[in-house]
């Protein structure tokens, strides 16, 4: 068998198994190996690294296209990767791909992203993992550039491997991009976060609708790389220890 | 007014506003300032950094104890901190406290923790923030040690401040502890994650029930510090960029 025939690629996402983005990522994955899809049965955006522990998970299998089995899960993106590798797959995947997300996952959005969490979960479990997002929220977004960026990131990982504990987070503008650039996570936050209204029986409710405020003007951070028309690629880690601060504080009494 | 009277402390958690742990943390917070509680209306463990964007949030206000207003939210821990600071509080808090969680949030559990996410959200929004957890899952856990650890961490923050972007993650054993120790996030992961069963009408389901495998034997990581009878305190950050890898890869073609 060729390397391509031997490889198994697990594809997940957070927009749900029926999104356009996951089909676009499956097309990319098929160039590199056999593909199986395990993804949420519905939209799961902004779930962060949520996992389901108080309820049972159910699955449904179907043929997404010729040669590609898909299994939907009534859970989160991280659940999908956990359940796939622990129970659903007969062999271990050589790569976990998550996306293509409709909407970028750059700056602080990395923290809230279900797309990134599926890839991070793959990394935690020991598999090379990549998250891919496109800067366009539209359901019919032009994902051609994001597909190209995904393919380049996958080739990079198969050529070079990934250090332990590292996930690649890839973002692309809608449509074509200039080239790929390595980027840092840009500092940013949401402001004016909620719209406060009253419902038809006059009870108040709050609905999230924040504006992203970019605090980081450096041109090598993901948000600014994207704005300049490049695709960004960022190595991220799940060890959250702030090592410099840890070393500085270690001598202090508490 | 004294510093204590001037300070406002926001208390949140992920076990829900009626848990024993949040009342224990309110007792600690009252020693340092005025206290307001904004927390989920139900158990929200393992939600990670989930936020609610597709549904409206509702609130209910009640008096938790004399002088302490509590507002429950039908959302996640991170929602509570966002909504509190954007809409519910009349003034900005001087500190965000999250916990006391019933169950430790050390090692990989930091990634899945709603308790930690509430504190991280506080940090993102620019407030000094601390998460506090106790190594005992029991509803009637002895939280006296965790209260002591929380008080020490709060005093540390009011004495020294916290660098931008840094959250303190505090864990304590049940009952008394030897002393507090600075610790790193320990590398760990869950194995044998799911129990597969069939329901009364013979359909399969999967239920998460993993064993935590500790991959890190160093005595300065949070999990091992706790096992040795100390309380752990770990500075964590929401910038997930793997800087060393970023620098190493920046010269590589992709």
UniProtKB/TrEMBL annotation, chains A, B:
SUPFAM superfamilies cross-referenced by the UniProt entry: SurE-like
Reactions catalysed, as given in the entry: a ribonucleoside 5'-phosphate + H2O = a ribonucleoside + phosphate
Cofactor(s) this protein requires: a divalent metal cation; Mg(2+)
EC number: 3.1.3.5
Domain called Survival protein SurE-like phosphatase/nucleotidase: residue spans: 9-191
Localisation per UniProt entry: Cytoplasm
Keywords: Cytoplasm, Hydrolase, Metal-binding, Nucleotide-binding
Keyword Nucleotide-binding: yes
Record-listed a divalent metal cation binding positions: 14-15, 45, 101
GO molecular function, one term: 3'-nucleotidase activity
Chain's role: Nucleotidase that shows phosphatase activity on nucleoside 5'-monophosphates.
Similarity-based family: Belongs to the SurE nucleotidase family.
Protein name: 5'-nucleotidase SurE
UniProt gene name: surE
């Amino acid at each position: 068998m060729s390397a391509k025939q031997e490889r198994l690629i697990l594809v997940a996402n957070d927009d749900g198994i029926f999104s356009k983005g996951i089909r676009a990522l499956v097309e990319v994955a098929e160039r590199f190996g056999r593909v199986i899809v395990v993804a949420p049965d519905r939209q799961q955006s902004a779930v962060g690294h949520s996992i389901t522990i108080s309820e049972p998970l159910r699955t449904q299998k179907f043929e997404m296209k010729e040669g590609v089995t898909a299994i939907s899960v009534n859970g989160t993106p991280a659940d999908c990767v956990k359940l796939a590798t622990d129970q659903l797959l007969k062999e271990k995947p050589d790569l976990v791909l998550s996306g293509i997300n409709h909407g970028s996952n750059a700056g602080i959005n990395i923290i809230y992203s279900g797309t990134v969490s599926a890839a991070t979960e793959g990394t935690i479990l020991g598999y090379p993992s990549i998250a891919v997002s496109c800067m366009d929220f539209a359901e019919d977004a032009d994902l051609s550039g994001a597909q190209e960026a995904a393919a380049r990131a996958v080739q990079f990982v198969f050529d070079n491997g990934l250090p332990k504990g590292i996930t690649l987070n890839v973002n692309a503008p809608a449509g074509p991009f200039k080239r790929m650039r390595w980027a840092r996570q840009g500092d940013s936050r949401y402001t004016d976060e909620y719209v406060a209204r009253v419902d038809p029986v006059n009870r108040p409710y709050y609905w999230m609708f924040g504006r992203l405020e970019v605090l980081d003007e450096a041109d090598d951070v993901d948000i600014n790389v994207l704005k300049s028309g490049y695709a960004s690629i960022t190595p991220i880690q799940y060890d959250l220890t702030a090592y410099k601060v840890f070393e500085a504080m270690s001598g202090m009494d508490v």
